[in-house]
Automatic annotation (TrEMBL):
Annotated Gene3D superfamilies: 3.30.230.10
Pfam families: Lon_C
Protein name in UniProt: Lon proteolytic domain-containing protein
Molecular function per GO: ATP-dependent peptidase activity; serine-type endopeptidase activity
Membrane-spanning residues: 12-34
Keyword DNA-binding: no
The keyword Membrane appears for this protein: yes
Keyword annotations from UniProtKB, A to Z: Membrane, Transmembrane, Transmembrane helix
Source superkingdom: Bacteria
Length: 264
């Protein structure tokens, strides 16, 4: 009796194993709704990018600057690029990659052309609000100060804070005749409103890696994303949380003078 029971159980396992293998194979071979992201490019908004000056201010005298203010990005698999289970598993265990829901990388969906168009529009709006925030902070009128921002082939709103800081540095520096950066390589990320509020962006753990790779020693991070930024923080990179443009300027001034600087 016992021998028959084991035999039947064995047959059942073999039969049930066929659809199970099929399900596993389907899971492995089927594309998943994720994107795999890695540290992307950074660009010094005080300098040039792809041969063009990133921040150009005319109509009023400007300053020569030293140091760098580097905006940061992530590079992600495209909306039409398939991501499979193996990619997800690999990315999950690597510190230089992140697996993110595709909807969070490309909110609103659409094809590649539609997403590129939307990202370009978001960048344009970000540039406009960054300019408005910087001029409002400095008490300057848009009628006397003309700002042009150029960053070819980079989309989205996350460079807003760094654009504003670049304008402030070119016009006023630290307010005492020196550079806002103190000669350092400062990187960061964050959206900005015309009133100077800094917003979260996502992907900060990868952006900190891009920043350190390109020489940054200080990283300005939206306050709400401190814990994310700490997760894979590269050695030698100091996190400075910010929630407003004014707070970011004050933190950089304090960093330069040896004053109290907020930390994550």
């Amino acid at each position: 009796m016992g021998g028959v029971f084991r035999l039947r159980r064995g047959k059942a396992l073999v039969v049930c194993g066929v659809p199970l293998v099929g399900l596993i194979a389907a899971a492995v071979l089927a594309p998943l709704p994720f994107s795999v992201a890695v540290p992307g490019l950074t660009a010094n908004v005080l300098g040039t990018y792809k041969g063009a000056q990133v921040v150009t201010v005319t109509g009023v005298p400007t300053r020569r600057t030293s140091g760098q203010l580097r905006m940061t990005t992530i590079a992600a698999t495209g909306p039409a690029q398939d991501v499979y289970l193996g990619d997800v598993v690999d990315g999950w265990f690597r510190t230089d990659q992140a697996v993110m829901p595709r909807d969070s990388v490309y909110p609103g969906g659409g094809n590649t052309r539609e997403i590129e168009r939307r990202n370009t529009e978001e960048m344009r709006k970000s540039q406009n609000t960054a300019t408005a925030a910087a001029l409002a902070y400095l008490g300057r009128s848009p009628s006397e100060v003309h700002v042009r921002l150029r960053l070819a082939n980079v989309g989205g709103p996350s460079a807003g804070l760094l654009f504003s800081l670049g304008i402030v540095d070119k016009l006023a520096g630290d307010g005492k005749g020196g550079d806002l950066t103190g000669g350092r390589v400062v990187a960061g990320t964050g959206t900005i409103t015309s009133r100077g509020s800094v917003g979260a962006v996502g992907g900060v753990a990868l952006k900190t890696q891009a920043a350190r790779r390109d020489g940054a020693t200080v990283f300005l991070v939206p306050e709400a994303e401190c814990s994310d930024a700490r997760a894979e923080l590269p050695k030698g990179l100091r996190l400075v949380p910010v929630s407003t443009l004014k707070g970011a300027v004050q933190a950089l001034r304090a960093l330069k003078s040896g004053g109290s600087v907020p930390s994550c």
